[in-house]
Design brief:
Number of helices: 1
Strand order of the largest sheet: 3-4-5-6
Oligomer: single chain
Number of strands: 6
Distance between the termini: 30 Å
Order of helices and strands: EEEEEEH
Helix content: under 10%
Length: about 80
C-alpha cells in the first residue's frame, strides 16, 4: 500500500509515482545549474519526514544542500 504519492507535469503530460514506508519517494526537479530535490521517508519514530535540498541541477558541480526537514509537527506550528 502506498504511503507516499508524487506527481510531476511537463511537456508530455503528468506522471505519478507512489512510495511505501520501506521505499520512501524522491524527486529532483532541475534546470542545468540549479534545482531542488525532495525526499519523503519514515523516520525511526514512525513519522513521515519531508527533506528539501538545493542542488546544482543537471550540471551537478556541487553536493546537495539540505534546506530543512519537516514533519507533521511543523505544520501544526503554522
Amino acid at each position: 500500500m502506498a504511503r507516499f504519492y508524487g506527481s510531476l507535469k511537463g511537456n508530455r503530460g503528468q506522471a505519478t509515482r507512489t512510495g511505501t514506508k520501506k521505499s520512501g519517494i524522491e524527486g529532483h526537479i532541475r534546470g542545468w545549474d540549479v534545482g531542488t530535490k525532495v525526499r519523503c521517508f519514515v523516520n525511526e519514530d514512525g513519522n513521515d519526514v519531508v527533506a528539501v535540498f538545493l542542488t546544482s541541477g543537471s550540471h551537478g558541480r556541487m553536493h546537495d544542500v539540505l534546506l530543512g526537514e519537516f514533519t507533521e509537527k511543523d505544520i501544526q506550528q503554522i
